[in-house]
Fold this sequence. Notes:
The protein is an alpha/beta fold. Helix content is 36%, strand content 23%. The strands form two sheets. It has a seven-stranded mixed beta sheet with strand order 4-3-2-1-10-11-12. A five-stranded mixed beta sheet has the order 5-6-7-9-8, with helices on one face. α3 (93-98) links the parallel β3 (78-82) and β4.
Amino acid sequence: xxxxxxxxxxxxxxxxxxxxxxxxxxxxxxxxxxxxxxxxxxxxxxxxxxxxxxxxxxxxxxxxxxxxxxxxxxxxxxxxxxxxxxxxxxxxxxxxxxxxxxxxxxxxxxxxxxxxxxxxxxxxxxxxxxxxxxxxxxxxxxxxxxxxxxxxxxxxxxxxxxxxxxxxxxxxxxxxxxxxxxxxxxxxxxxxxxxxxxxxxxxxxxxxxxxxxxxxxxxxxxxxxxxxxxxxxxxxxxxxxxxxxxxxxxxxxxxxxx
Length: 258
């Protein structure tokens, strides 16, 4: 059986035009290298820095990425896509056109006898009631239906603006967030899961907690992003650029047996 790959927080659409193009090209190259290498791709949320699809319109900035994801499904690669706190505006497009169902809840999977608990990671900080209320409102079906009455240029533009603005408020919480995610992972591992996989913090992590492992592949708003793979024996973090240059052979990675 081919391996399972994990990645998150690519934030396509974030940064200057040059930064966006470089990140998008690297991500497209990564996706193109996966057929024959993995059987399952898990996207841990915030794939896009903003997203909102209408009945006949999607953000034009991401058409090449959408096509690349469609090719993965064409090659038979299963895709689990958990939406994050930036790319929650999905409706029908991914489901109907790509056969990829964006999931708004945490998921549980079992591969090679190991139980994985998988989440984007937002809403895990204790006492973060304000964010949980805002998330419930923004993801409400009626609220999103009303939002679609806005012209797509306005609606997608507002989504882009709100996404960029929210990042300014999130920066001071980074250390507290990382600690909260690790504590959450420890609690889930105590429930009997073998591996807890989270995103959101942008902090690459692969460490033992009790009888299991906490994995966070980190984010792509860096020069050398990482992804994670599990082949049934080893769980490891691998540099995307090393993976591409080695044509699928392990190069620079951090691996452990699980």
